[in-house]
Amino acid sequence: MNYLVIIEKVGKDYSAYLPDVPGCLAKGRTKEETLKNIKLSFNVHVQVLEEDGIQLPKPKTEAKYISV
Fold it and tell me: How many domains does the chain have?
């Protein structure tokens, strides 16, 4: 499955989250570090959900760019 990751510039750093997986967050100094960290965060998040008997939400969010 593929989940949408939103990456935002916050001050000098970056933050990331998955809209379809509430509570799954990460940050880093670069986009690359942030992507690495969100993957790690996602893996831990999935493990915790499984331990709690909660099913991982299916991906449903999409993103499109428009010209303005």
Answer: 1
